[in-house]
Each structure stands twice: as structure tokens, then as C-alpha cells.
User: Which sequence fits this backbone?
């Protein structure tokens, strides 16, 4: 049974082809939008210093060449959409997109990580075996093993489900935080703005959000509930876009990706319609009738390495988000194991962190003006995330050492507020951060949250 | 905890019904703005119709204005807050400041025409009055004020004395360029009235010799300040006030966000760092007493700092500029609205901390230079007390208001 599932080609490739085209289009738009907002310059080129992911400090900003790799990335998107030299296109997209994201963790977003993961999967999937320029040139495949599509569905299920269980905590469900803060201050949304002032709306939204995330994967999987579930997908993500305009492309990516749950009949219909349009355009241009492409009954066979790679990928995806369980203390406060775990729009955290540079021999001290070194966006992100604080402390120490200062010690004066709680001291002010080294170990110099958050 | 569970069960009970309500409203809304979701719709339906033609002194009623429209009883009157800021705080402060500057201009002309000791004395008095009133204007770095670098051209210190002397001896200077921002404004007048020579007699004799051109430069500087202030005032008298009070949204460019950002920036930089931190050596390791405000006038640094503290208190609490017993809507009231069920209110914490800082400032020497040289630890302690308010404003308050700090422009999730 399992053997047949993994070996036999039983599934029409149309859903994968539609997924490829939509993914390519969205990414093309996202890249152009990123460029148009001048973020390549403000987020990557302008800052003097970049916050690195642990283990990826070798990923450097390329200066003006950022634009060059962006152009290659955009060309890759067009290749993905058209299915032209698909394999090269998707691999180059995956590598470049991921590289850009790795330059600076200040810009970390769950949906960038999501995009990298999907692109990774697409590198191995026969997404251009049907309705693509590649297939047009060679031969169109009519059947692929169904796990090729199920892999994407499963990945979406993981994302939703983990995002859902992350919301099962006392702040989210019992205090309706952070939604209380976020929704009350959206008073400027027409009509809704007034309703958002009611406390019970914050509770309704919190509970609805949690239930949606946990259950939507199941409702999307079952044929009976799929259509209604998809309406909820649209509703939910459009709502998030209205309430939180700054979440960027995320709602659209999730809505379009969820189409993969529908069976091939609807995807086939869309492709036939697309084909008709293309035919019409071609006929209009060339004036001579073009014959339909030959439609051979060919089955696709995955390379034998793909399955093991996918199994590893999914084991990683299932385990990695749970790594927070290995750390003591409050996850939201310490943020040890917070990223890459599908914790989306989960907390409201603000910080204010300044650094005291001390000469341990003369005891002379001075404070650093953060705006001398960081962009306002970097300063904002640094102020409440311990790994940023540590990395920046080391950067400052080295900077002042190079300026000729001696016996340098770096102390953080840090205050953070979480989900509407009063601010409290965040980092032990007596710990010389220059002596602390980044690792996966628990950071003992984070002062514990003076409150308890219950839940998963 | 019991209270929380009560809330919880209540919401569960109502959830189904209200979720449906929620959804139907969303669908309704989608019909309206399906064209572009990223654009917020400009129409202002939140705020009740305040009487905008007769704005001054009616904000004490603004708490009641919501009764005009029964559906808005739950919402804070954001427009009322903006009206209070514009009509009872910002515009009166600028008007008062402008009048004092015109007086300064007249006194300066009298003095340059007749450099007598009593004219110098009255010029110094008017200068101090005007400088004090400026403390109520500096924080509102918005509109034309921001475009013309108002605050940098009026009160950048320390004054660049070398540049001032060069300008005076060369008689060839362009006050519009940024390299001349530190050789104009109040700190330059401070130098011109107190610092160009050892004692008053010598100072007066420098003005008496018209070939030295000190009088000309003084007049030019004062004229420029009047001119800049007129520009700022003129904008507030134009349609700008109306668009200011209409911009009630919570977006990066709306009036509330801009003013809150200005206020916090001023508190952190113009007040905390410039007046206390930098001279006390917080950022340099060594005390820099020559960085105090009004370095040459010597005994005015504390007076000016207290005025600035008063301006901060006035703005935060919504006190009318002309009559501080009259209180309108401001951040204090907005925070109370957002924290209706909290015992230890943030607005009280902020006011307490402002009070603590004020008491510490009152204990300082009138001349911060002497204070820093004699006992800098007391100066540093004052700085620490002010710093505590920065945390409350920048972390706690901004979280409650859900306003982001300047231009951190990127997506978030």
C-alpha cells in the first residue's frame, strides 16, 4: 500500500502546475514590491552592521551587487512562472532568496521562511512537467506520484497547526493579548473601528484565530468541508490584512497556497481556460492555426533521492518548532526557540536597550547612542531580543577596542514590556556581555519575566 | 485569576454569535475597500462633530461631545485630543513665542542703536523670556517646522563661536546653510550678549564700535528667528490646522503618531540628552560642562530646563497653555482610556516619575556648569530619574498606544 503510494504515478500534475505559476507570480510581485519600497537599500545596503543568524555569519551583504542578485532572482521567477528551464530557475530562486534573508535577521519574517521552505520543496518536485515551456518542448507528463502534491499539503498543515497550538496560552486566550492592544488601536478602520473597541471582540478574534489555525488543515483535507474551509481561508487572511496592513504579502501567499488542497479537476479546468487564452493570443498574432500540443500518456518517476530528502525535511519541520521545550523560562520573554516555529503575530513586545561601555581598570563609563550604529528598524528589533543584544554588545566592544579603548566591558541597560504588562528589566545589568558567547545554550543573563504565561 | 476565568467563559458563551457578527461586518467592509486594502480610507467617521470654527477653550467639553453620537460612547475622542493639542497647546505657545520674539527684535534694535548698559540689561531680560517660551515650542517638530529645521536653527548648542566670529568679521554669511545652524538662534545670542568679552563694559564697547559689526550680526540673527517663526505660525493659521485635526488615524504619517514621536524624540534628545546627559558626560565618559544650554549666560540653564519640564508636563496632561488649570484631552487621558481596568495606571507612573525628576532638578545649582564641576553625581542622578521616564514613554506608553517609533518601515508578523 505504502509502496504503491510512493512508487505509482496516479495523480494528475495540474495542481502542481497551478501552484508553480501562482507561487512564481506572487514571488515576482513580492520582489518587485520589495524593490519599489527601496528596502534593498534601507534594509540591506545602508546599515553599517547586520545581525547574523547563528552559524550563518559568513553570509554577507553584497552592497550594490544586491541589485544584481535581485535581478537574477526576478528572472528566476519568470522562469518558474513559464516553466522555462524550471529546475535551474527554482534552484536559483531558492538559493538567492534564502541568501538574502540570511543577510540580516532583523528582517526575519515567518512568511519569508515559509517561502524558502516551499521553494526548497519545489526544487525537487515535477512542477514543470505539465503546462510549461519545458514540457511543451519535451513531453507533457500526465501522471505523477500523488505524494508530490501531498508533500506541499502536508507542509501547509504543519504551518497552520503549529501556528494554532502556539496560540493556546493564557495571554492569547484568557487575556486576549496582544489582540486587545492591536485591535483597540485600529480605531481608524471604517465601521469596524468602533466595534473593535469592545473587549468581547478581542476575545472572539483570539479564540477564532486559534481555532482557525488548529482546525483549518483538517477541514481543507476533507473533500466535504473543503469549499467552506477555503472560504474561511480567504476570510481569515483578508481580515488579517485589514487589521494588520504591515504583514505584507503573507495573507496572499497563504490564500493562494491553500488552493493546492483542491483536487485536480478544478486545476485542470483553469489550465484549459489558460490554454485557450494562450491559443487565442497565438492565433491572433500568427494568423495561422496552431495544433494542440501532443498529449502523451507519460508517467513521472521521482529521483530515488527525493523521498529521503523529503523525509528528513519533514522530520526537521516537525521537531524544530518544538525545541523551545528544551529551554527553561518563558518562551515569549527569552525567545529561545521562538523563530522558525510558525509563531505568527503572537505577541506585542517593545524594548528599550542602551549599552554602557566600561573600562574595567579605570572604571570610566559612557553610554552608546544606538542610532550611531543601527537603523531605527534594527534598533527596534535589537531592543527586545536577547541574541540581538548579545551580538550588538560584541560589535560595540570590538568597535571601541579598535578605537583604542582598553579593558572593555559592555553592560546592557534594558527594559522590555510584553503583551501590555508594565516594562521590567530584561538583561542582568551586572553581566559583562562581552564575556558571554552566543550558543544554543540557555542565556542565564536574561532576567526572568515577573509573571507566568500558561499554555503550550 | 478568578476574574480572568469569568471573562473567559463569558467570551466563550458569546463567541458564536459575535463571531458571526464579526464575519458579516468584515464582508460588508470588504465590499467597500476591495480595490486597495493597503490604503486606509480617508473618511473620518469615528470622531463626533466637534465645533471646529470656535475651537479655543471648548475642549473641556470634549469629553462630553461623544454624547452627540450615541454609537461612539466607547471610543476615545481622538479628534478632540488633536483639537486640544492644536488650539490650546501648540498654537497659543507659538503665538506667545512669536510675540516675545517681536519684542526681542525691538529691544535688540534699541540696543544696537544705543548700546547702553540699561538697554543691554533689558535685552537680556527679553532674551530670557523669549528663550523660556521657546521651550514650549521646540518639541512640535511637525509641518513647516520640520521642513525648515526650525528647532536646529533656533536652539542648536553649543554655539560655534569660531564660526560666529568669522561670520562677523567677514560680513559674508548665508544663514540658510546647515553649517551656519550652530551660529544662529538662541545659543548665538547667548554668546553675543554674554560671551564676546570678559565684562559688560567691554561687551558694550564692542557694540559701540559699529565697524566691528556685532550689532549687525545680532540684528540679522534675531530677524532670521522672527522670519522662521512667522513661517511656522503662518502654516498653523492656514488650512494646516484643519488637516492636522482631521488626521486621526493610527498610521505612520497621521497627526497623533507624528506628534507622539516628536514628543518622545524631544524628551529623549532635546530634554534628557541635550540639557542633562551630554553636559554630565553620559555619552562621552568625561563631563562636558561647556555643552550646557545658555553656557555664557551662566545662571539660566536650570530655569530653561524647568520650563522645558513644565512644557512636557503640560503637553502630556493636556493642560491649556494659557491657563494650566484647564485640562483637555491628551496622552494622559488616552492612556487612561486604554487602561480602564488597570490598578496601577501608567499615566500615574509617568506623572510620578516626572515629579521625581522635577524635584531633583530643583535641587541643582542654577548654573549647571557649576553643578557639574562641583558635584556631577547629582547631575547624573537627575539624568537617571529622567531616563526612567524615557522607558515608560518609549516602551510602556508606545505599546499601549500601539504606535511605532519613527519610520521603522518594513513588514512585520
Assistant:
Amino acid at each position: 500500500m505504502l509502496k504503491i503510494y510512493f512508487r505509482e504515478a496516479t495523480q494528475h500534475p495540474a495542481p502542481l502546475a497551478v501552484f508553480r505559476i501562482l507561487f512564481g507570480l506572487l514571488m515576482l510581485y513580492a520582489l518587485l514590491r520589495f524593490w519599489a519600497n527601496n528596502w534593498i537599500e534601507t534594509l540591506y545596503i545602508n546599515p553599517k552592521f547586520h545581525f547574523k543568524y547563528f552559524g550563518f555569519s559568513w553570509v554577507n551583504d553584497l552592497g550594490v551587487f544586491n541589485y544584481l542578485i535581485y535581478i537574477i532572482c526576478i528572472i528566476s521567477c519568470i522562469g518558474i512562472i513559464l516553466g522555462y528551464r524550471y529546475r535551474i530557475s527554482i534552484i536559483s530562486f531558492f538559493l538567492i532568496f534564502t541568501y538574502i534573508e540570511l543577510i540580516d535577521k532583523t528582517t526575519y519574517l515567518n512568511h519569508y521562511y515559509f517561502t524558502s521552505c516551499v521553494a526548497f520543496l519545489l526544487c525537487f518536485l515535477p512542477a514543470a512537467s505539465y503546462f510549461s515551456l519545458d514540457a511543451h518542448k519535451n513531453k507533457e507528463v500526465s501522471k505523477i506520484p500523488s505524494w508530490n502534491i501531498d508533500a506541499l499539503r502536508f507542509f501547509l498543515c504543519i504551518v497552520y497547526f503549529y501556528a494554532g497550538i502556539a496560540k493556546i496560552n493564557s495571554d492569547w486566550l484568557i487575556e486576549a493579548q496582544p489582540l486587545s492592544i492591536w485591535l483597540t488601536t485600529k480605531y481608524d478602520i471604517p465601521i469596524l473601528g468602533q466595534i473593535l473597541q469592545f473587549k468581547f471582540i478581542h476575545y472572539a478574534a483570539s479564540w477564532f484565530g486559534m481555532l482557525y489555525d488548529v482546525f483549518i488543515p483538517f477541514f481543507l483535507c476533507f473533500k466535504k468541508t473543503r469549499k467552506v474551509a477555503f472560504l474561511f481561508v480567504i476570510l481569515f487572511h483578508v481580515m488579517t490584512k485589514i487589521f494588520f496592513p504591515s504583514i505584507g504579502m503573507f495573507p496572499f501567499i497563504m490564500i493562494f497556497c491553500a488552493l493546492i488542497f483542491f483536487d485536480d479537476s478544478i486545476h485542470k479546468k483553469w489550465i484549459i481556460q489558460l490554454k485557450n487564452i494562450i491559443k487565442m493570443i497565438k492565433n491572433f498574432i500568427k494568423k495561422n492555426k496552431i495544433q494542440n500540443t501532443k498529449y502523451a500518456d507519460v508517467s513521472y518517476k521521482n529521483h530515488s533521492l527525493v523521498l529521503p530528502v523529503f523525509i528528513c525535511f519533514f522530520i526537521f519541520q516537525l521537531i524544530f518548532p518544538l525545541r523551545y521545550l528544551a529551554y527553561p523560562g518563558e518562551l515569549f520573554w527569552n525567545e529561545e526557540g521562538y523563530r522558525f516555529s510558525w509563531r505568527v503575530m503572537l505577541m506585542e513586545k517593545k524594548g528599550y536597550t542602551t549599552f554602557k561601555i566600561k573600562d574595567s581598570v579605570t572604571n570610566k563609563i559612557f553610554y552608546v547612542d544606538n542610532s550611531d550604529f543601527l537603523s531605527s528598524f534594527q534598533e527596534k528589533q535589537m531592543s527586545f531580543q536577547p541574541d540581538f543584544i548579545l551580538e550588538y554588545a560584541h560589535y560595540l566592544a570590538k568597535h571601541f577596542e579598535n578605537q583604542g579603548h582598553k579593558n572593555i566591558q559592555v553592560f546592557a541597560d534594558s527594559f522590555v514590556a510584553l503583551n501590555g504588562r508594565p516594562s521590567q528589566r530584561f538583561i542582568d545589568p551586572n553581566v559583562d556581555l562581552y564575556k558571554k558567547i552566543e550558543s544554543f545554550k540557555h542565556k542565564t543573563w536574561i532576567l526572568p519575566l515577573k509573571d507566568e504565561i500558561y499554555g503550550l | 485569576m478568578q476574574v480572568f476565568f469569568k471573562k473567559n467563559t463569558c467570551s466563550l458563551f458569546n463567541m458564536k454569535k459575535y463571531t458571526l457578527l464579526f464575519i458579516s461586518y468584515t464582508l460588508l467592509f470588504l465590499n467597500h475597500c476591495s480595490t486597495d486594502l493597503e490604503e486606509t480610507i480617508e473618511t473620518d467617521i469615528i470622531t463626533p462633530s466637534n465645533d471646529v470654527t470656535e475651537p479655543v477653550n471648548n475642549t473641556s467639553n470634549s469629553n462630553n461631545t461623544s454624547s452627540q453620537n450615541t454609537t461612539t460612547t466607547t471610543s476615545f475622542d481622538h479628534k478632540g485630543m488633536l483639537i486640544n493639542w492644536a488650539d490650546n497647546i501648540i498654537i497659543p505657545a507659538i503665538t506667545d513665542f512669536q510675540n516675545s520674539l517681536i519684542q526681542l527684535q525691538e529691544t535688540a534694535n534699541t540696543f544696537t542703536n544705543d548700546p547702553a548698559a540699561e538697554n543691554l540689561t533689558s535685552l537680556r531680560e527679553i532674551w530670557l523670556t523669549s528663550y523660556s517660551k521657546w521651550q514650549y515650542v521646540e518639541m512640535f517638530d511637525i509641518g513647516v517646522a520640520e521642513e525648515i529645521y526650525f528647532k536646529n536653527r533656533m536652539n542648536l548648542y553649543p554655539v560655534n563661536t569660531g564660526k560666529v566670529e568669522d561670520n562677523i568679521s567677514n560680513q559674508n554669511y548665508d544663514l540658510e546653510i546647515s553649517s551656519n545652524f550652530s551660529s544662529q538662534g538662541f545659543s548665538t545670542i547667548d554668546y553675543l550678549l554674554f560671551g564676546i568679552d570678559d565684562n559688560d563694559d567691554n561687551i558694550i564697547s564692542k557694540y559701540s564700535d559699529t565697524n566691528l559689526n556685532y550689532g549687525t550680526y545680532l540684528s540679522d540673527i534675531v530677524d532670521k528667528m522672527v522670519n522662521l517663526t512667522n513661517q511656522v505660525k503662518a502654516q498653523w493659521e492656514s488650512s494646516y490646522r484643519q488637516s492636522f485635526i482631521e488626521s486621526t488615524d493610527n498610521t505612520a504619517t497621521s497627526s497623533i503618531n507624528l506628534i507622539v514621536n516628536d514628543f518622545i524624540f524631544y524628551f529623549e534628545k532635546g530634554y534628557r540628552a541635550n540639557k542633562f546627559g551630554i553636559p554630565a558626560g553620559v555619552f562621552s565618559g568625561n563631563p562636558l560642562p561647556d555643552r550646557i544650554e545658555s553656557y555664557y549666560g551662566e545662571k539660566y540653564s536650570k530655569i530653561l530646563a524647568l520650563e522645558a519640564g513644565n512644557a512636557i508636563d503640560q503637553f502630556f496632561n493636556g493642560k491649556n497653555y494659557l491657563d494650566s488649570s484647564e485640562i483637555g484631552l491628551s496622552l494622559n487621558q488616552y492612556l487612561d482610556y486604554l487602561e480602564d481596568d488597570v490598578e496601577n495606571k501608567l499615566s500615574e507612573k509617568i506623572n510620578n516619575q516626572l515629579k521625581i525628576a522635577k524635584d531633583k532638578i530643583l535641587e541643582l545649582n542654577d548654573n549647571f556648569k557649576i553643578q557639574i564641576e562641583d558635584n556631577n553625581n547629582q547631575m547624573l542622578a537627575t539624568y537617571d530619574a529622567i531616563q526612567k521616564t524615557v522607558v515608560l514613554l518609549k516602551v510602556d506608553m508606545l505599546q499601549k498606544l500601539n504606535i511605532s517609533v519613527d519610520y521603522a518601515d518594513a513588514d512585520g508578523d
